[in-house]
């Protein structure tokens, strides 16, 4: 296996152009923290962004920050924190989920669209991404988007690159919009609710004007272990007032326990990083997206398949831990989300399972044709992460 670690965009272009001429596919890599996500690659050469690091733009007054793709997300967050700012979403760190080392990178964050618990309130990473530079499958450097939030020039390749898992281009630079960091955070915890009651409480809370930024439910391992979480952020006086009024509104669901930012942080970090399930290390992990009100019914339908489950995004995101044997519950999971009108991703499973089962939601024929056409336009020789998301694409 050959490892290519360019330090400039021009060097990356040369690597891709050479691979294209030789009809040699490339496996794209950032920090390597999500190597277990997606279908297994048969590429023998690796193109890594580790040499492309550094903040390229930071305008605190304009609320934008840009960084080369190999820049650790930690560096971006530390840079923003020093000026009282942050990325709007909570970038997921999947090292505990996959048991990997390295550090999550800016490019990997964009390529995988790894949004955390704040996603339902702040939008996905694709909503915060305003500009990218990348190398396409022809070895050409492409710039899309801009460095200001009101830029609308050209085709929206920015959104296409987000969540494409490197199949449409090797990212070299990304630009995000940012927001002020809240002064404080407080979490209200309700105990002992079943799934249906918990989602009812979350739905009620999200529908209030109290600006909820986290809404999750962890059923726990036994009766009485369940905890339902609602997070409020902002100025101290505002948070205290909103928390009091919200707790009163939710009185029918039980007494709300107050948890400060420090004591609640491990719970939100666990949800962010996909480990709140407390699944056994060899369990397969699914991530289902459904309408929040349908979440409890989907969980009930899959009770015979799932060993553990948890809800985030007000019930709209359902995490499942299942036995990795056979298809890791793929047939049952796909049937359940199809009936609910949702979609599912096999986030963690043995390589053999990921090679045989669909990892990402299988697209309808028309959508698959569009997906293949976009891949062909960006990477005609299928050099970049071929088959990472779908076989033959």
TrEMBL record:
Entry keywords, A to Z: FAD, Flavoprotein
Organism domain of life: Bacteria
Pfam families tied to this protein: FAD_binding_4
GO molecular function: catalytic activity; FAD binding
Keyword Flavoprotein annotated: yes
Gene3D superfamilies: 3.30.465.10
Residues annotated as domain FAD-binding PCMH-type: 1-181
InterPro entries: FAD-bd_PCMH (IPR016166), FAD-bd_PCMH-like_sf (IPR036318), FAD-bd_PCMH_sub2 (IPR016169), FAD-linked_Oxase-like_C (IPR016164), Oxid_FAD_bind_N (IPR006094)
Protein name per UniProt: Glycolate oxidase subunit GlcE
The organism of origin for this protein: Lichenibacterium ramalinae
